[in-house]
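#struct-help
A.M.: can someone run this one for me? Single chain, 568 residues.
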Amino acid sequence: MTSDDLLAAARAWRDDDPDPETRAEVERLLEGNGRGPDLDGLRDRFGATLAFGTAGLRGEMGAGPNRMNRVTVMRATAGLARYLADTGHAGEPVIVGFDARHGSAAFAADAAAVLAAAGFTVRLTDRPVPTPVLAFGVRHLGACAGVQITASHNPPRDNGYKVYLGDGAQIVPPADAEIAARIDAVGPLSSVERAPTGDPRVTRVGTDLVEAYVAAAVDVAPRRSTPDGPPLDIVYTPLHGVGRDVLLAVFARAGFPAPALVPEQSDPDPDFPTVGFPNPEEPGALDLAFALAAERGADVVIANDPDADRLAVAVPSPTRGEWRALTGDEIGILLADWLLDAGHGGDRLVATSVVSSSMLGRLAEARGVAFAETLTGFKWIARAALDRPELRFVYGYEEALGSCVGTLVRDKDGMTAALAFVDLVGAETQRGRSVLDRLDDLARELGVHATAQRSIPFEGLDGLARMRAAVDAVADAPPTALAGEPVTEVEDLRRGGRLPPADGVVLRGESVRLIVRPSGTEPKLKCYAEAVVPVRGGSDEDLTVARAESGARLAAVLEAAVGLVGRP
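D.P.: on it. Structure tokens below:
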């Protein structure tokens, strides 16, 4: 794009933009600092367009097509409305929800106005809601689609636009490309009709929807620990997000004591002032929760990310006074084992993603149930259940703290997962054990499965191209060994086959594995490593030796990964 084209695009956007803040942002860039227009700033906003994909839209807020803003949201909604009409859903209900981030309520109102003007009946939430409640609401209200305005655990400056279709699951190909094509065909914003405030086609939903979710959540994860046992002391943080009120309602309905809230993080706050990054996986994010737990002598710490679709857990460490955050794979295998233990039959299904631990597959084989491995993302894990309707879907998870208990929500749900996990903690506590003891039992049975990931950032407009080039390099010239072990299989996920085509390459050895793939939501190349070592005996010493060996192999695989993809 030439400088003249860039300036013309910026002026056209400014003249069309209904938001005074983003209009002013463009005006400042056009004026520059007395030395002419800020071409670099304009190019960053107008030189590219946020891509609509299976994750919908997500990005930094600001002016221009390469940012999240009112214009981007309304054009995306106009394209979605056209897609829904073209696929036979004209006039049907659509549910629209939002979290508590900056701009979320306005974006949701704009989406509702565009959908209503296009002839759809819109159910707009009357408050910020967790993403699982919105996903639940799609099927509960008989909607043909759902839109949630959220950026989940992204930084405060970001926002996003997440789309569900009538089956309650996130979109997958080819729907994403078909919606994107219709968004691209939308003309200037002045051509997009919007219903006025108070239009009768837009009605508010809230209390009844949340109540229906709470009642169903307790049914899908019924309590198995003894209610009259010693009360658990639970510490909970929603990380300044929107999960608090719904999670407390779910716990109360299930008969658990109210968790102690981390006071500095209990209220929704779009600036996330106590954390550098509002992701419970990030170092330091749970420090306040750990401090409160240590003060209370708590039994467990649970945390949701800001839209409450992820669950983090920490438990008291054998080292007195310290807390151990469980990995997503540890939470996943513990919940899978606990939920499978509650039922019977080989017609049950558990699922996880290709980047998660292979331990779930071994557990499924040992328990005589079906297992599905999917591409990364809950759009695929939920699809595993939809694709096998003859099976009873019990549980699915991915290593990034995502869990799905049953089929109540066809997406990750950090609140039902929290309920099930606290029930597990209660049962083990009543037996005089901990969940770490249960992890040890699973390791002795199935082997130690050490997993970790490393993310390498690729910033800038050409970041995506450079990430793909790095994946190309690994696929075209794979190493012959990982951590001193021969590579016996190279699976280029881009070619498809047992899984739909996706960016990424899998390298496998006899006991090690490495997956290299671009993130779907952030400018990062992600490297996922695993090392599996059997426990050669039943003693604590045998387990310690196996863990040490797996840890050393894992570190060597991660070091090899950095060498393969290089530094940006």
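A.M.: thanks! The chain has a mean pLDDT of 95.
D.P.: also worth noting: Residues 335 and 421 are 7 Å apart (CA to CA).
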